[in-house]
Amino acid sequence: MYTNPNNHAALVAGRNIRWLRQQQRLTQAALADAAGIGQTYVGQLERGQKNATLDVLSALASALGVSVAALLQPGARARPSRRSRPPLAPPPAA
Predict the structure, then answer these.
(1) 8: pLDDT confidence band, cut at 50, 70 and 90?
(2) Which sign, positive or negative, has the C-alpha torsion 73, 79, 82, 87?
(3) CB environment 18-44: b (16+ within 10 A), e (fewer)
């Protein structure tokens, strides 16, 4: 499929979405389900083939535990916020 190299914002967002999804070991299907969008659409966004609306970016950011701004920062490797991570289990008693 065609990716428009002139669509810089879509490419940046797509790379960040893919990187965050992979860091959290999520499939495209799992991310799509959590964000309430289609799996095919997630793939198109990651490849920079589609432009996401603000509502979709907000849903993806929420599902990934980051801000919308983090999805749009070139060269950034956004990290999920501490709030979105499950609490760590206490160390086992010795």
Answers:
(1) confident
(2) positive
(3) bebbeeeebebeebbeebebeeebbbb
**Could you tell me which of 1, 3, 47 has the C-alpha nearest to residue 21?**
47
pTM: 0.75
Please tell me the predicted confidence (pLDDT) of residue 1. Answer: 47
Tokens 């609490």 locate to 87
Specify whether the CB–CB gap between 56 and 49 falls below 8 A: no
Answer with the residue of higher pLDDT: 32 or 84: 32
Query: How many H-runs (helices) and E-runs (strands) does the chain carry?
Result: 5, 0
Q: Token pair of 43, please?
A: 């793939």
**pLDDT level of residue 82 (50, 70, 90 thresholds):** very low
